[in-house]
Write a structure and sequence with these properties.
Bound molecules: guanine
Structural class: alpha/beta
CATH superfamily of the largest domain: NAD(P)-binding Rossmann-like Domain
Shape: globular
Distance between the termini: 43 Å
Helix content: 40-55%
CATH class of the largest domain: Alpha Beta
CATH topology of the largest domain: Rossmann fold
Largest sheet: 6 strands, parallel
Number of helices: 10
Radius of gyration: 19 Å
Length: 282
């Protein structure tokens, strides 16, 4: 039976540390969160981020823009926030309405305030190993590995999913820790053949039940990033068939209570880091 990786508990500890560190600064760190449109899921995500800020001693300013907002208007708000010395982090909740070019928006955020770490400059620094903010979900998973004494050195790491937010950066961070990384995606011909080789398996496909027990090498570490919502019950579940896989894995993350809370905690940590750099406290 696998050891359960308790993301909720670890995230609470990280948030408490962030709150302690934030209290030492000459002023509170500050997040500016921008929500364009009224997507209910995005609305919940942004509200949760505001709550997390409150818990961590971080100020938050929220900007709700109507769905029809012109791209120029959004860019001009970002420009204003870039120049506002009291704002440490700018978060534009994705996805954006179709008429807005997501890349143009990400590029417009000052790399110093890019607490999602989506800006190409920060992505580039992550690839070359320069110090920079890391995207929250991959950073949270690396924190879990550290906490549970899971070394990636010389391990075969299989990443299922290649999104800019999770899959791609996650593979790069595992490579940094000397893992041998294989990326799998929709066009991978035999997914099971790949996952069966994995010492470390990270799954971020958004495909419920994709990973079954027979696809796991005995003793593998299994990280389930997905948050799939059952439309009937409203319950959340991952891409991994938990009951089957936990019998074979050495470590496994639950859904909910695994990666999700860590993503949120790492956002708070990134805001703190951006504030410390801005206030010349590190
Ligand atoms: N939408 C879904 N995940 C994220 C995230 O991590 N950051 C932002 N800005 N939008 C998202």
């Amino acid at each position: 039976m696998a050891v359960l990786i308790d993301g909720k508990k670890l995230a609470e500890r990280i948030c408490a540390e962030v709150a302690r560190e934030a209290a030492k600064l000459p002023r509170k760190p500050c997040l500016a969160a921008i929500l364009v449109g009224d997507d209910p899921a995005s609305e919940i995500y942004v509200r949760n981020k505001e709550r997390d800020c409150l818990k961590c001693g971080i100020d938050s300013r929220r900007f709700d823009l109507p769905a029809g907002t012109a791209q120029e208007e959004l860019l001009s708000l970002i420009d204003k926030l870039n120049r506002d010395g009291a704002v440490d982090g700018i978060l534009v909740q994705l996805p954006l309405p179709e008429h807005i070019d997501e890349s143009a928006v990400i590029d417009a955020i000052s790399p110093d305030k890019d607490i999602d770490a989506f800006h190409p400059l920060n992505v580039g620094k992550m690839i070359t190993g320069e110090p920079t903010l890391w995207p929250c979900t991959p950073a949270g998973i690396m924190e879990m590995f550290r906490e549970y004494g899971i070394s990636l050195d010389g391990k075969k790491c299989v990443m299922v999913g290649r999104s800019n937010i999770v899959g791609r950066p996650m593979g790069l961070l595992m490579l940094r820790e000397n893992g041998t990384v294989i990326y799998c995606h929709r066009r991978t011909p035999d997914l099971a053949e790949m996952t069966r080789q994995a010492d470390i398996l990270v799954v971020a496909a958004g495909s419920p039940g994709l990973i079954t027990g027979d696809m796991i090498k005995p003793g593998a570490v299994v990280i389930d990033v997905a948050m799939n919502r059952d439309p009937d019950t409203g319950k959340f579940f991952g891409d991994v068939c938990f009951d089957e896989v936990e019998k074979k894995a050495s470590f496994i993350t639950p859904v909910p209570g695994g990666v999700g809370p860590m993503t949120r905690a790492m956002l708070m940590k990134n805001i703190l880091t951006a504030a410390k750099i801005s206030l010349k406290q590190m």
